Amino acid sequence: MRELTVEKNDAGQRLDKFLLKKFKTMPKSMAYMYIRKKCIKINGKKASPQDFLSLGDVLTFYIKDEFFEDAKEENYEFLKAPKTLDILYEDENIILIDKKPGLIVHQDKSYHFDCLVHRVQHYLYDKGEYDPKNENSFAPALVNRIDRNTGGIVIGAKNAKALRILNQKLKDRELHKYYLCLVINKPKEERGLLSDYLIKDEKTNKVKVLKKEVKGSKKILTKYTVLQSKNGLTLCSVDLLTGRTHQIRAHMASIGCPILGDNKYGDKKLNEKYSLNRQCLYSHSITFDFTTDAEELNYLNGKTFTAQNIWFMKYLK
Known about the structure:
Blueprint: E1 2-5, H1 15-22, H2 28-36, E2 40-42, E3 45-46, E4 58-61, E5 87-90, E6 94-99, H3 116-127, E7 141-142, E8 151-157, H4 160-171, E9 175-184, E10 191-201, E11 206-210, E12 218-230, E13 233-240, H5 247-254, H6 268-273, E14 281-288, E15 304-306
């Protein structure tokens, strides 16, 4: 028999979710079997997968000891990643990173050892703010994602409460992300709200913008403002009112203003002229605009953070 006390970063989540995070080698079906057979109890009582954990709850386990074997420090995957970060802001709950183009945020099929979330974990581990040995189910995580070849601000959560709050704020659009993009040509209007439909081709990982709704399509809304034009290029500020795959890239291209450097939706010949292999798109600003209680994070309400030194601004000089 083993016992475990629910800590701050474990509280507020379902038992089944907790088990799959705590015991990474335990098959999902086995976790549910253990609960069903009363091999896992909460405060000495029968539990169900849907039970939410509270701070101080005592979990009792009658399961194989092998699932309690912790990884040795030298086997922590995140320690293989560099801890180099361009930090815009940091406090006890969150960290805002200016991710540079070329870096993936999470592991993917091309992953070897370096990704942004592992850099954040390595950085916090060295600061003494994160130690897997002291956590049952939590690891510092990223709230939002940015494509590999797009740069911009990514929010990291240092604790489970901050992560839950910010995930809710992102879902409810109480976090506003603004983008800068450098497009070819100039939109007919200085500012506009583009309203169309988008459908994705999974085979090609490419999307199409449609004027009318069809089966499988999703509504897209993109607000843009022209900031500067020079040499056949235009700098635009973009506010995504919906967040779909490749939305900015495809939507701007649909009005004859593809993003410079975007070979998927843009002008390959012109991109070659500028020797570009990544799109001139940057998530440069984020505003915390809470309309509901943010609990421990209310101090962030109304604050805006902006990245500086956007790499493609040189093409407007």
